[in-house]
Write a structure and sequence with these properties.
Largest sheet: 9 strands, antiparallel
Shape: rod-shaped
CATH topology of the largest domain: Jelly Rolls
Structural class: mainly beta
Number of strands: 32
Number of domains: 2
CATH architecture of the largest domain: Sandwich
CATH class of the largest domain: Mainly Beta
Strand content: over 45%
Distance between the termini: 11 Å
CATH superfamily of the largest domain: GOLD domain
């Protein structure tokens, strides 16, 4: 019995042909013909999408596709939306044809749009009369990235543009700070001298301060930003900082990162491909100083979020096993 497994691939305008015994794959200008001496299927990629346009018994000259009918060659879910061969906005990425160990001829097609690449394969078995489809594979194409910056996200509202403002008296539990209208544009205030402004943070004698970013989606994030003492603070004191993902420390590897008292000697923070889920909290923490001096620190972190997309599904029902009589 012949088996034809379907793989979704982008179209190549050049002609190509692969033969093994009576099994063959032919391609030309966005059309692929896969068959054996007894059965033949035609797949086409055009402005309407990827579809099967013909399925016929060569011996009896019977066409099983009704006139004008087409069959979508793939169907799966992406972020809760059904994507098919007809509505994906597909273009050809690549095609491959090769002979397998038992004489089968395989066609691999990879198609893509702005969100995803999908691959489907067709295998023609010589001397058989059954066509069967296999599952597709899908790979997400990185989408547009979203950037969040302390400078632009600063607000008098907790959670505005995913930013929150907190303090900790024990180094483990974090409590929300209170908005105060003092200064040029207002600030978040906590215990003692603990404060957070637009791009600066000031720890208290006994209170850590934390600017907190809450992830809006599942995906990965990168973090960048230099950290330096504010030039207004000329007391000669260094401070200590760290970054937490929820309760797990992600920078530095352990302990605290010292920030020099010299404004011209900043520490550089660069983290990439940090896996997050919706609601995860990234905390930029400055440790309490044990001193009554004001120790403002300039720290304007930039976070880039690449959201994860959900792909689910398999090949179209129209591409399931089809016996030929």
């Amino acid at each position: 019995m012949p088996v034809l497994l379907l793989l979704l691939v982008l179209i190549n305008s050049s002609a190509a042909q692969t033969n093994s015994k009576d099994a063959y794959v032919q391609s030309h200008a966005g059309t692929w013909v896969i068959g054996t001496g007894e059965v033949e299927m035609t797949i086409r990629l055009d402005g309407h999408g990827l579809a099967m346009t013909s399925f016929r018994n060569k011996l009896s000259r019977t066409e099983y596709m009704k006139a004008g009918a087409v069959s979508d060659e793939t169907r799966f879910g992406l972020d809760g939306k059904e994507i098919t061969g007809a509505n994906g906005g597909w273009s050809l990425v690549r095609q491959e044809q090769h002979e397998l160990t038992q004489g089968e001829v395989q066609l691999d097609l990879t198609l893509g749009n702005e969100q995803v690449e999908v691959t489907k394969y067709y295998v023609a078995y010589p001397g058989t009369v059954l066509i069967r489809s296999g599952a597709i594979t899908a790979a997400l194409v990185p989408g547009e990235q979203e950037t969040y910056r302390a400078l632009g996200g600063f607000s008098a509202t907790q959670g505005e543009q995913e930013w929150r403002y907190a303090q900790s008296l024990d180094g483990e539990s974090f409590l929300p700070m209170v908005w105060g209208a003092g200064g040029y544009e207002g600030r978040w205030t906590g215990y003692g001298l603990a404060q957070i402004g637009r791009i600066w943070m000031q720890p208290g004698a006994t209170a850590d301060v934390a600017r907190v970013f809450v992830s809006p989606a599942n995906g990965t994030i990168s973090i960048a930003g230099d950290i330096r003492k504010d030039p207004s603070s000329r007391n000669g004191n260094a401070v200590e900082v760290r970054v937490l993902l929820n309760d797990r420390q992600i920078w530095p590897a352990s302990g605290w990162q010292e920030i020099s008292a010299d404004y011209e000697n900043p520490a550089s923070l660069r983290l990439d491909a940090i896996r997050v889920e919706t609601g995860d909290a990234v905390r930029f923490v400055i440790r309490h100083t044990g001193r009554s001096d004001a120790d403002p620190v300039i720290w304007d972190p930039v976070i880039t979020v690449e959201k994860e997309r959900l792909v689910s599904g398999s090949c179209s029902p129209a591409a399931e096993s089809r016996p030929i009589f």
